Amino acid sequence: MAARILDGTAAAQAIRAELAPRVRAFTERAGRTPRLGIVLAGHDPGSEIYVRNKLKTAGEAGIVAELVRIPEEAPVEEVLAAVAALNARRDADGILVQSPLPEAMGADAETRVLDAIDPAKDVDGFTPANVGRLVQNRPGLVACTPAGIMELLSREQVAIQGARAVVIGRSDIVGKPMALLLLHRHATVTICHSRTRDLPAVARTADILVAAIGRPGFVTPEFVKPGAVVVDVGINSVSDEALVRRLLPPDSPRLAAFAKRGSLTVGDVHPSVSEVAGALTPVPGGVGPLTIAMLLANTVAAAEARLRA
Ligand code: NDP
Predict the structure, then answer these.
(1) Is the CB of 265 under 6 A from ligand 1?
(2) Residue 219 pairs with which residues in a beta bridge?
(3) How far is the CA of 235 from the centre of ligand 1 (A)?
(4) Taking the CA atoms of the chain, what radius of gyration do you get in angstroms?
């Protein structure tokens, strides 16, 4: 039987609808709308798309999002100066510096920039202060993708307490915070990575399996315990036709979209997992929309907290 689809688009819509009265209440009390500053350095094509989506979705939610562009060849000090300006601005509630920064800014550029962001405005939840608060299970701004997944699991009434959860991926932005959030909800959590031995067997112990790897269709049915809840975080753009044909069934309507566009966005989970899993997030339409909804939620929460402070 095919897995139940966990609809991230619908959950994201619900989150945004719930934010609307909070945005109105803030705007009335503060005499201004919540405001998000997005710093974009360079012209990474993926970043351009992400930032455009963030600006559009924020605008629709009644949040003013302002884009600060930094030239590709600028030194990291220009990004730091943009962050300092947003830190100082009383009407800026949230700050987000789009990753990746241009390579020429140096290997430590991302760390230097994260260290500079005021944690009260850190709507990505990536600063050491907010990560520390997450580790200690204290209130703070939490990374949007894992926070969105927790919202989805909770809205879909997935039982977390006592469940065995396996997170494949240990990045600072997805895997680690995901594991911590599941742990705080009393799951028994295992984190896997590229050096994990016998990964399919470890993954098969999971009642909740989260794939945040960045490899198209990596998680196949042999990774999945029958009935497990599988969360596919992967966003992979694939243009290799042979690979697309391996990933999609021959009657998939998405093949026509691939023929037209020459590329397709696929997840880390192979579609055939749907025959084994109990529930599955689709790509697209699963975790992606939740990430942006949680960015808005963090911006509103940051604005409200600053009003109270
Ligand atoms: P990273 O590249 O930072 O991390 C990938 C992780 O996967 C690493 O921990 C790596 O292990 C692990 N990994 C890689 N290959 C293997 C393997 N063969 N076996 C086991 N583990 C492996 O990626 P991110 O966490 O940033 O993103 C993961 C995916 O999620 C990407 O597709 C990204 O596009 C997507 N994403 C989606 C978002 C959304 O909104 N839906 C938001 C953010 C990311 P090791 O540490 O050992 O190298």
Answers:
(1) no
(2) 269
(3) 10
(4) 20
Whether the Cβ atoms of residue 143 and residue 150 lie closer than 8 Å to each other = no
**Distance of alpha carbon 119 from alpha carbon 303, whole angstroms:** 13
| Contact predicate 14/6, CB 8 Å | no
Asked if residue 212 has its Cβ within 6 Å of ligand 1, the reply is yes
- Give, in order, the Cα–Cα distances in Å from 171 to each of 75, 174, 259: 26, 6, 33
Residue-wise pLDDT tens digits, 69-96: 999 999 999 999 999 999 999 999 999 9
Domain 144-288 sits in CATH at 3.40.50.720
| Domain residue ranges in the chain | 33-118, 144-288
d(CA 38, CA 33): 16
Integer Cα distance of 38 and 45 in angstroms: 16
Return the DSSP state at 223.
Answer: G
List of E strands, the chain: 4-5, 35-41, 64-70, 94-97, 164-168, 188-192, 208-211, 229-232, 236-238, 264-266, 279-280
pLDDT tens-digit readout, 113-157: 999 999 999 999 999 999 999 999 999 999 999 999 999 999 999
Does the domain at 33-118 match CATH 3.40.50.10860? Answer given as: yes
Measured from the CB, is residue 285 less than 6 Å from ligand 1?
A: no
pTM: 0.97
